[in-house]
Amino acid sequence: MKKTSSFALPLLAALLISALTITVFLTLTPNTWESWKPATCLKTGCFCEASNTQSPIRQAANTYSSLAFVFSAVFIVASARKGNRFSISYSILMGLASIIVGVGSAFYHASLTFIGQFFDVFGMFLLAVFTLVYAWERVYKLQLRTTLTLYLILNMLLSWLQIAIPDTRRYAFAIVLVIALIFEYYFRVKDKPQIDARLLRIGVGLLAGAYIIWILDNTRTICFENSLLQGHAIWHLLGAVSVVFLHKYYLSET
Q: Would you say the pTM of this structure is higher than 0.90?
């Protein structure tokens, strides 16, 4: 009963955030985004799904599927436990980052604007940088204040980078994530913690599979542009599940 009730409030919050996000978009007029600076992807095509300029939600499947990350936050926050190596504060931080990914990505695909693009990638950076600095904290025995300072500095630098040189944003995300995984592996070899590495492998495997689908969609190798079945939407769903497994991996450390 207690476990069920712990999910009730986060689930309600996720439903409200998702409903509010979609409601805000639907109250706008179809030409709302025309005066906004366009996303850089419009030069080459923003993924497979066709842009519906007759609707305030230009890419419906990609917009709605983005909100899967908001529901990932439900599992993350509801699973937080006191007395764990991975503190409740970190669970909340991961949950908030996941919400920002979901709402930011929904904003991006609904508007196909530059500011939407910024918030889409900003959320991804929040999660990737967290995996990096949390690995550093355990490898180098950092204090919480140092970890959070590094977290803020790196996210500020990456935010500046995607504004100044937006075409580097995806490469920067991939580089940060790979470096984070290297340090995470180094931590396990160095300290030999009791942790369920299988959960991390599942999460990384889901993300790798999602990335392959992302490439097939982005290059239009497999593309049904007017269908609700979109490769990029699948990328969102698998990515959201991989975040949950990452959190479960962190919680398994004793």
A: yes
